TrEMBL record:
Database matches in PANTHER family: MULTIDRUG RESISTANCE PROTEIN MDTA, SLR1207 PROTEIN
Source organism per UniProt: Photobacterium proteolyticum
Name of this chain's protein: Efflux transporter periplasmic adaptor subunit
InterPro entries, alphabetized: Beta-barrel_RND_2, MdtA-like_BSH, MdtA-like_HH, RND_pump_MFP
Record key words, sorted: Signal
Length: 263
């Protein structure tokens, strides 16, 4: 009887042993960043926003001098009208030659030449349409707009500077949602699982705590920190968290107990 009571007491003691939270540290990192590059070569006439500026999707970040591109559009429109006129002549000649050939009043060779000229004229129109479309796209590219809401974190262009196609102009980051990259020791990694709830707060503002869950757990140790990466995403609609902030995170004992009961 005494042995039974002792065994029962030991079992209750083990089950009631407190399970401590896992405390982690890390940094916030932007999830959505875009590089704004020039799609054409030209001289920058206007680049309004500075580093730190908040921009909206569609905001014009910079303008490239458009005069040469407007002239190119006019040139391609005139060229398209010219080749269309030539196509009209070649088509009319082809139709007439076909009628004459049906009446045996024209040689097959002459009809073949008219057919070839007609097909070449159609190809010239198609090519002119492509050139006009390209000219219009280039003209539209003189206005460089933001593809999303966000903050300017890097400006690499100045008014009056010449830029080439592919040159970086701005970097824009959206921080409505941030990644938090935490570091877990070899001892703690076994106590964590994907989907586990964590509480996150910035070192600069420990009163502001945000609940989230673990999204990813690395399976290979980082050779620099000698820790395993643990990633969490946090909603940040008021932008109170900034990329690069030092972050603390903690699991809850309840979650740890549930986790440990699975093994």
């Amino acid at each position: 009887m005494k042995k039974s009571l002792i065994a029962t007491g030991l079992t209750v003691a083990l089950l009631s042993t407190p399970v401590f939270a896992v405390d982690l540290i890390g940094h916030t990192k932007s999830k959505n960043m875009i590089n704004v590059v020039s799609e054409i070569s030209g001289m920058v006439e206007m680049s309004e926003f500075e580093t730190g500026s908040l921009v909206s999707q569609g905001s014009v970040l910079a303008e490239i001098k458009a005069q040469d591109f407007e002239l190119e559009v006019s040139k391609q429109k005139a060229n398209l009208a010219l080749v269309r006129a030539d196509l009209s002549i070649k088509q009319s000649l082809y139709n007439r030659y076909r009628e004459l050939r049906n009446k045996n009043s024209l040689s097959q060779n002459e009809l073949d030449i008219a057919v070839a000229d007609f097909e070449a004229a159609k190809a010239a129109v198609a090519l002119a349409q492509i050139e006009l479309k390209k000219a219009l796209l280039d003209l539209a590219s003189t206005r460089i707009s933001a593809d999303m809401d966000g903050y300017i974190i890097n400006r690499s262009v100045e008014d009056g500077a010449w830029v080439s196609q592919g040159d970086l102009l701005y970097q824009v980051v959206n921080i409505d949602v941030l990644n938090v990259r935490l570091l877990a020791s070899e001892y703690d990694i076994g106590k964590l699982r994907v989907g586990q709830e964590v509480e996150v707060w910035a070192e600069a503002n420990p009163e502001l705590k945000v609940r989230s869950s673990i999204k990813r757990i690395g399976v290979e140790i980082d050779p620099v920190t000698f820790a395993y990466p643990v990633e969490v995403e946090i909603n940040n609609p008021n932008h109170l968290f900034k990329p690069g902030m030092s972050i603390h995170a903690s699991t809850t004992p309840a979650n740890l107990t549930a986790s440990n009961n699975q093994f």
